[in-house]
Design a protein that fits this description.
By secondary structure, the protein is an alpha+beta fold. It contains 25 helices and 22 strands.
Length: about 600
């Protein structure tokens, strides 16, 4: 039962809202040695802003909203039947609890195991929050955990302390102040929060998270658009967490001692933010990997470079996603070889790699025939193959080559050597290679007759799409045959629609320089949610899903979903489509680390 109690506390902490005016915000309240933080600064505002996004507006559409309302009503009933008795509040009450800031933090004082903090502002929902807390404490009491209280006289506040001492959580300390509920796993940690809470200066104290240089550096790069405060922020210092978790663990301590030799001690943190309804964007997100300079070892091997990001002519306009990146493969190989040679002896990595080449593909030289061939540009494309089914999503990975003709000769030699495993086919002037073997695999199950006796095994054929390999233009491609045919037949067709010429791509690409002025991107991403959502729509309304929903022995959630769809059928896809706009992102290799900015465009009424 104690797990239910703790789960109830955590469930409540998964929501958030505007911080109380009399209380410092989380960065000023949590200690400086907070090594991980997830924070929602203002839940009501976040909800309001989200409802202004494309997804929020879709949920409010006259033809979609009734279905969502029906599903929420079913969820409320199921919650009442299965959960409400244990937590003491209804689903609606639980959802309305957040009336202030919510945060979860991992604190790692030097020389001690990690400690945790949960914080939830409840505002005018204090009664519902108290009911939840009473249920949680009753469950803890029923488990027989030692309980004590400690009065903080000057604040007229009482700490409730449970001695848990399992699952790495020695204590659970609970208190409420001004409508804010706090749970920590250490009494001293709770008291230190109260010291900063009652700070009379109005400025962040030196021991607060706001004064953590790593946290500040990351948050500086993760601000909202136009100075808007992000709705969700997160931060982590993984190495500090690992060091804290290694206290008392000799093996882990010795492993951590190797990190400087690998250059990983220069990885100092990660963090990011999400802001909804961030004019002129539907949303904007940031993700920053903080690294020291100069980079060594593994961090130097992360050799993100720059180059042309425009989609080649073979990328079709109806691609669901397009990702293009540039990488210095030689630097990556040399750094990895250098690190491995540190442990195994100088030159051993090169000998091992070339030895493998000699044994497997006789005559191929790794340095000249492989490494020098990698021009540095990598592309990943997804495409939804009709009709809609579980295997409709097709991936294509393409690597740009320096000398495609030379690589084609090697592929011909290798496939000829292993012709018992590979079959060569052609599309126009392009030769491609596919593994031999059945494109289907068997799955087996056993069922029972009406007397409960097992019957003979029943065999079912399960589709198993096979990948194929080809060189198209200057790119070595791995994809599935239907997409390869589409690429080859369309690339030289002047009338075929190209992604690079589409308005959607141009609108997204026009934002890249604005988000990273004066900087060359190492990776860009582009997505058309319309195509992936069309697949979801066709699949949900297709015969496979209908058969699944019509199963008379289906579980209750499936039955409720079927009832909801019968009462409120999905509208035509055009209703949904009008809310879907393209999205994009750009990654930059900055002096302080890697920074990725993602965004969604807005669909205007005219569009």
């Amino acid at each position: 039962m104690h797990r239910i109690a703790i789960a109830a506390i955590l469930a409540a902490s998964s929501f958030s809202a505007t911080a109380q005016a009399q209380r410092p915000a989380t960065p000023e309240l949590f200690p400086k040695d907070t090594a991980a933080l997830i924070r929602i600064a203002d839940a009501p505002e976040m909800y309001e802003r989200f409802m202004n996004t494309s997804m929020g507006k879709l949920g409010q559409d006259d033809q979609v909203g009734p279905l969502l309302a029906e599903l929420y009503g079913s969820a409320t009933e199921m919650f009442k039947e299965n959960v409400e008795e244990y937590v003491g509040v209804s689903l609606t009450e639980l959802m309305s609890l957040p009336q202030g800031e919510v945060a979860f933090g991992v604190v790692t004082p030097e020389g001690t195991p990690p400690m945790f903090i949960w914080l939830l502002d409840t505002g005018d929902q204090l009664d519902a929050a108290n009911k939840l807390m009473v249920k949680a404490q009753a469950a803890l009491d029923e488990e027989g955990y030692a309980k004590s209280t400690e009065k903080i006289e000057e604040l007229d506040l009482e700490l409730t302390i449970y001695e848990i001492r399992e699952d790495g959580m020695p204590q659970l300390v609970l208190f409420e102040r001004d409508g804010t509920f706090v749970a920590t796993t250490n009494v001293d940690l709770a008291k230190s929060l109260l010291v900063r809470w009652t700070n009379p200066t109005g400025k962040p104290l030196a021991d607060s998270l706001a004064k953590n240089e790593r946290y500040a550096a990351i948050m500086k790069r993760c601000r909202g658009e136009g100075g808007q405060q992000p709705h969700i922020t997160f931060f982590a210092d993984p190495l500090t967490i690992l060091k804290s978790a290694a206290v008392g663990n000799i093996e882990m301590t010795l492993t951590l001692a190797l990190l400087p030799q690998l250059g990983l001690d220069g990885f100092t943190g990660v963090g990011g933010s999400i802001t909804f309804d961030a004019e002129p964007y539907d949303y904007i997100s940031h993700f920053h990997v903080l690294m020291e300079n100069p980079r060594t070892g593994v961090l130097k091997a992360l050799a993100l470079s720059t180059g042309d990001i425009t989609p080649p002519d073979w990328v079709p306009a109806d691609a669901s996603t397009y990702i293009c990146g540039h990488w210095d493969f030689r630097t990556t190989y040399e750094q990895i070889a250098k690190m491995v040679d540190t442990f195994q002896g100088e030159g051993r990595t090169g000998e091992a790699v070339q030895g493998f080449m000699d044994r497997t593909w006789e005559g191929m030289n790794f340095q000249t025939d492989v490494l020098d061939q990698l021009a540095g540009r990598m592309i990943h494309v997804t495409w939804m193959e009709p009709p809609a089914r579980l295997t409709s999503q097709v991936q294509c990975v393409a690597i740009e080559l320096s000398d495609p003709a030379a690589m084609q000769e090697w592929i011909d030699k290798i496939t000829k050597k292993y012709d018992q495993f590979v079959v060569a086919k052609t599309i126009g002037r392009i030769t491609y290679y596919e593994p031999k073997g059945p494109p289907q695999a068997e799955s087996r199950r056993r069922d029972r007759d009406e007397n409960g006796q097992e019957r003979d095994e029943v065999q079912q054929n399960v589709e198993f799409p096979m990948p194929c390999l080809a060189i198209v233009d200057n790119f070595l491609m791995i994809t599935r045959e239907p997409f390869l045919k589409k690429i080859v037949l369309a690339k030289d067709n002047p009338s075929a629609e190209k992604l690079a010429d589409s308005l959607e791509y141009k609108l997204v690409a026009g934002r890249f320089n604005r988000l990273a002025p004066g900087l060359q991107p190492g990776v860009i991403t582009f997505s058309q949610p319309e195509h992936s959502m069309r697949w979801v729509y066709d699949f949900v309304t297709g015969p496979q899903t209908r058969e699944f929903l019509d199963d008379p022995d289906a579980e209750e959630p499936v039955l409720r979903l079927r009832d909801a769809l019968e009462k409120h059928p999905l509208p035509p896809f055009e209703v949904i489509k009008k809310y879907l706009a393209p999205t994009g992102g750009v990654m930059i290799n900055e002096p302080t680390g890697f920074h990725y900015t993602g965004f969604g465009l807005r669909r205007t009424a005219s569009e």
